[in-house]
Specification:
This is Prepilin-type N-terminal cleavage/methylation domain-containing protein. InterPro entries: N_methyl_site (IPR012902), Pilin-like (IPR045584). It comes from Kosakonia calanthes. The protein is α+β, with helices and mostly antiparallel strands. It has helices spanning 12-33, 37-62, and strands spanning 66-71, 74-79, 81-83, 92-94, 111-112, 119-121, 126-128, 137-142, 147-152, 158-160. The chain has one domain: minor pseudopilin epsh domain (minor pseudopilin epsh fold, 3-Layer(bab) Sandwich).
Length: 161
């Protein structure tokens, strides 16, 4: 009597199907792991718009001008410090005290760009005042591969275009 011989391995078709599945999965994972530089810059712009809106509201509540400026590989907000003068019952902004740079503030603390080598155009400091109606403003955030525009409308709200 003959006994049936059963193979304990895989057929060539089965091995090829497994390799194709592994290839597709690894391609999908590698594409999702590598961030798009434009997406990173857009994320920076959205975060900056939220922070600028919060700073604008703080100015309207407090009355003191807040300055936004780029520093190194990031940016910061700063403003004058309220001081009580002996000859006045009204607190005033000191020109001798150190600036408040919001280092302990949850929203307005100094931040670094996520995208590498961001340039802001125009590069001058931005003054946020208590005026409810202001002139429109455009900021461009530029990296080596992308540009994102931030706009302030006449009501003072910042948004990413």
């Amino acid at each position: 009597m003959k006994q049936a011989i059963h193979s304990a391995g895989f057929s060539l078709i089965e091995v090829m199907v497994v390799l194709v599945i592994i290839g597709i999965a690894s391609a999908a994972i590698s594409l999702s792991v590598m961030p798009n530089p434009a997406d990173t810059l857009r994320l920076d712009a959205r975060e900056l718009a939220l922070r600028l809106n919060a700073a604008q509201q703080a100015v309207r509540v407090d009355g003191r001008v807040i300055v936004w400026q780029t520093v190194g590989n990031g940016y910061r907000f700063s403003r004058g410090v309220w001081v009580n003068r002996p000859d006045s019952v009204v607190p005033q902004v000191s020109t001798r005290e150190a600036l408040d740079t919001f280092s302990h503030d949850e929203v307005l603390h100094p931040a670094s760009w996520r995208a590498a080598a961001v340039t802001v155009v125009p590069g001058k400091p931005l003054l946020l005042t208590a005026e409810w109606v202001g002139e429109p403003l455009r900021l461009e955030l530029r990296s080596a591969t992308a540009t994102v525009t931030l706009e302030r409308d006449a009501s003072g709200a910042f948004r990413v275009l």
